[in-house]
Amino acid sequence: METKSRIVEIKSIDAWSVFKLALIAYIIIGLILGLVFGIIMGVMGGLGGRIGLEDTPFSALLGAGGGFVGGIVFGILFGLFYGICGGVSGAITALLYDLFAMIVGGIKLRLDS
């Protein structure tokens, strides 16, 4: 069976589509990382409550609870900030690609059909 191949050149990348894709991808990555940090903050909050000066029966629970609540808030804010930064940097990269592709030419791909 014979396959035909053709060469196509990517001359431009839509910055808006790159922004949307990078935004969603980086928000998901940021939320996952933020939840991991939240768990760590909760554990550290619980340990901090246990070794504090006031050693009441509720100090570890309150420390862990405050750590988890802070971790959840941190995780959400971290995910949003990470997503916005990733989306903006992806859009800037697409715009730079467009600029450089006008000067030296785009990326050439060989497609087999």
Could you list some keywords that capture this structure?
113 residues; mainly alpha; 2 helices; elongated
Question: Describe it for me?
Answer:
- The chain is mostly helical and about 110 residues long.
- The chain has one domain (about 5-110).
- Helices cover about 75% and strands about 10% of the residues.
- The chain has two helices and two strands, in the order βααβ.
- It has a two-stranded antiparallel sheet with strand order 1-2.
- α1 (about 15-50) runs antiparallel to α2 (about 60-105).
- The longest helix is centred in the C-terminal third of the chain and has 46 residues, at about 60-105.
- It starts with a strand and ends with a strand.
Describe the structure concisely for a colleague:
With 113 residues, the chain is mainly alpha-helical. The chain has helices spanning 15-50, 59-104; strands at 5-10, 107-112. The mean pLDDT is 83.
